[in-house]
Structure to design on (749 residues):
């Protein structure tokens, strides 16, 4: 037979089928010529079937086919609903800006007399919209340039604290002293966009903003967690069809960019008050949607109270040992030099290790290693590919190690000292409430949730995180097997629930069930396999994926999966039920009612469009990374044959939409409960007037610093509030450790 590639080459050489067969003797290869001759009739017939009939009588009205005649605003709404962000922006650019349509009265308050009148008026308002303009996007480094207020559509006020030379402005300290009774009055409810930022800025200036009532960014996130953008410009366009003044329009870009305090007061007045005005107008629209989708309680009882807790974390920050990091930088640098030399020796020459193109040449052209996956730029050299290639050659393993050290050195060891606040001596990470689609908090600037947990290098970096006072200790409270306990609650699987009720080692119990051996006979290898199954299969990992991770063949992996679901039928039923409900409704919900639309689930997709979410990693399999290749034989049980349908659906690779649905229910519920625990702990610490502070949230873990006399109390408090956060059918277990640094935390006796 002649394949597509050879057919293309032949036609390029001979031009037409007729010429090809007229010159058949010129075709190289006897077998190829024979195939062509045998398939001559089929070739000409295929061409006839594929050829368009130019004589077909078709009347075309070319004028009616001209593009145009559509409503760009409606087209923009449609493109946004289907997740076509670039097309959405193109359509919006064709919509005449509505900025001029709004009739506004934005005033500058630049004297104390005007400020006194404004405060008197605000004191009579039940709700006000509030915003700050500052010198930095990092709140702990920012100074206030001015602030704006609004409580009527189209009306608002800007107070300049910093301004261009010669401009009239208010003295910041005196102005804030006058504003304090309003800002710290919890009876005057505050509305804003990303109020967490404003609260940290004000707290640094000595003001504790009280009465936080509504955050438009958080509301938008709850309404559509899969949407990538919840900034105010986007919300104004989406809900108000209003084109706002952007920050780039205000301060410019590149070399022409101004500081905020260099912008003329009339321009910054319009920009700042417009933000407060837009927030004020958005509030009733978003509040109505939250109520319609039954998200108002989650918003009111969890997400809004959480803002104050996150302010506490970000304001406190955590102390880092700069000298320790500098020593690690030296060590990692030396290790990279050694690794570089070893890589060159294995490769037989020097090359740029950071260049994918040069790495492709070394691995695939020179070392003749198999090309496992292709990308637009050639054979892939990503981490998964290198892991597989490492089984065939020592060079990929060295490259993996080199990349790991280089990343840790650049991301943490060298970067963290540059992020230490000059006054506090601490690193103040941001905890983002509106990023992860599951509801989880994310960390940035720096990302303190991404430091490896179980590697030596990760522990070395964690050793640089310290309590902020001499004699104090860190207290780390961590949910034990949080996902699996929630899985037991949702699935109501009798065996799984019983194992947790007995406080058994769940991975050993699963190994016992899967291998059909007594619990006492479970080996460490069996347990590691069960751990991989626990954290992979329940999220839709196929036999292929499990075999790849464990280094076994797919037949063994399929037997593991069958045995798992035969032993835990409730888990299989929960997974299938979740997928069925999502397919019917188009969304899934968490334990506290958080809602996430899941695209690509069949009939429900027609009503809600394709997926816009940037999905997170769906497999919690990091714990299984140490699984070795020398494993016991796969289980062979009579039960596998007697119930072949149980869990058979898991043997195929579940779609991304299905895995996302299951992941969201479990991981999103984790997020719900640890957020609620954080709120409860924070308020109890305040009520008991503790000196201890909450510093970090690392998914299932909370980090505190405490003086010696409060350690026992903090250990007990964390255990009580975290384990009792919500009534589940299985108990939540909390492990609490303390130490002089994050790496050295040990169980508190």
């Amino acid at each position: 037979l002649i394949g597509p590639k050879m057919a293309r080459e032949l036609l390029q050489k001979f031009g037409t089928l007729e010429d090809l067969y007229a010159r058949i003797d010129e075709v190289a290869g006897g077998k190829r010529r024979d195939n062509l001759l045998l398939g001559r009739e089929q070739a000409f017939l295929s061409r006839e079937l594929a050829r368009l009939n130019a004589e077909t009588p078709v009347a075309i009205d070319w004028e009616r086919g001209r593009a145009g005649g559509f409503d760009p605003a409606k087209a923009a709404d449609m493109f946004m609903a289907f997740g076509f962000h670039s097309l959405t922006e193109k359509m919006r650019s064709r919509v005449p800006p509505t900025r001029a349509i709004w009739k506004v009265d934005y005033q500058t308050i630049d004297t104390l007399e005007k400020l006194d009148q404004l405060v008197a008026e605000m004191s009579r308002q039940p709700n006000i919209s509030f915003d700050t303009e500052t010198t930095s996007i990092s709140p702990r480094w920012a100074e206030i340039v001015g602030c704006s207020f609004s409580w009527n559509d189209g009306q608002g006020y800007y107070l300049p604290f910093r301004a261009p030379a010669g401009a009239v402005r208010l003295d910041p300290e005196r102005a804030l002293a006058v504003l304090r009774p309003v800002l710290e009055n919890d009876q005057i409810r505050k509305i804003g966009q990303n109020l967490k930022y404003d609260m940290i800025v004000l707290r640094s200036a000595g003001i504790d903003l009280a009465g936080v009532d509504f955050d438009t960014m958080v509301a938008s996130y709850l309404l559509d967690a899969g949407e990538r953008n919840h900034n105010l410009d986007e919300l104004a366009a989406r809900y108000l069809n209003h084109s706002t003044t952007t920050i780039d329009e205000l301060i410019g870009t590149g070399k022409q960019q101004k500081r905020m305090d260099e912008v003329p007061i009339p321009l910054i007045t319009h920009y700042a008050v417009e933000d407060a005005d837009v927030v004020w107008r958005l509030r009733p629209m978003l509040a109505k949607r939250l109520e319609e989708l039954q998200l108002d309680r989650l918003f009111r009882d969890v997400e809004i109270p959480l803002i104050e807790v996150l302010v506490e974390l970000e304001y406190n920050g955590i102390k880092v040992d700069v000298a320790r990091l500098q020593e690690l930088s030296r060590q990692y640098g030396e290790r990279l030099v050694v690794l570089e030399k070893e890589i060159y020796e294995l490769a037989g020459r020097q090359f740029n290790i950071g260049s994918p193109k040069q790495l492709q040449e070394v691995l695939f052209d020179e070392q003749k290693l198999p090309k496992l996956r292709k990308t637009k730029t050639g054979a892939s050299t990503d981490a998964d590919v290198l892991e597989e290639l490492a089984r065939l050659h020592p060079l990929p393993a060295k490259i993996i190690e080199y990349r790991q050290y280089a990343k840790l050195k650049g991301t943490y060891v060298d970067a963290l000292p540059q992020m230490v606040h000059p006054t506090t001596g601490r690193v103040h990470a941001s905890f983002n409430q509106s990023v992860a689609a599951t509801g989880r908090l994310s960390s940035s600037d720096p990302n303190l949730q991404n430091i490896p947990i179980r590697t030596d290098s990760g522990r070395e970096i964690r050793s640089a995180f310290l309590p902020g006072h001499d004699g104090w200790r860190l207290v780390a409270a961590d949910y034990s097997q949080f996902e699996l306990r929630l899985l037991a609650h949702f699935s109501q699987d009798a065996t799984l629930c019983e194992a947790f009720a007995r406080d058994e080692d769940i991975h050993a119990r699963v190994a016992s069930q899967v291998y059909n051996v007594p619990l006492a006979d479970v080996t460490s290898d069996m347990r590691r396999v069960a751990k991989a199954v626990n954290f992979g299969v329940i999220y839709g990992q196929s036999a292929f994926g499990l075999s790849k991770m464990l280094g076994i063949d797919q037949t063994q992996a399929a037997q593991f999966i069958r045995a798992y679901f035969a032993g835990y039928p409730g888990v299989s039923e929960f997974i299938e039920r979740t997928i069925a409900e999502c397919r019917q409704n188009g969304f899934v919900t968490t334990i506290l009612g958080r809602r996430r639309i899941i695209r690509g689930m069949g009939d429900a997709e027609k009503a809600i469009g394709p997926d816009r979410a940037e999905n997170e990693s769906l497999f919690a399999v990091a714990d299984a990374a140490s699984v070795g290749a020398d494993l016991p034989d796969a289980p062979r049980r009579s039960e596998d044959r007697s119930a072949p349908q149980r869990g058979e659906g898991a043997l195929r690779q579940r779609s991304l939409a299905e895995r996302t649905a299951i992941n969201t229910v479990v991981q999103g519920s984790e997020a719900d409960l640890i957020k609620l625990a954080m709120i409860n702990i924070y308020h109890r610490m305040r009520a008991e007037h503790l000196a201890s502070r909450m510093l970090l949230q690392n998914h299932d873990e909370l980090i505190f610093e405490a003086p010696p006399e409060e350690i026992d109390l903090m250990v007990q408090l964390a255990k009580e509030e975290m384990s009792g956060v919500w009534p589940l059918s299985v108990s939540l277990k909390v492990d609490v450790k303390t130490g002089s640094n994050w790496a050295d935390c040990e169980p508190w006796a």
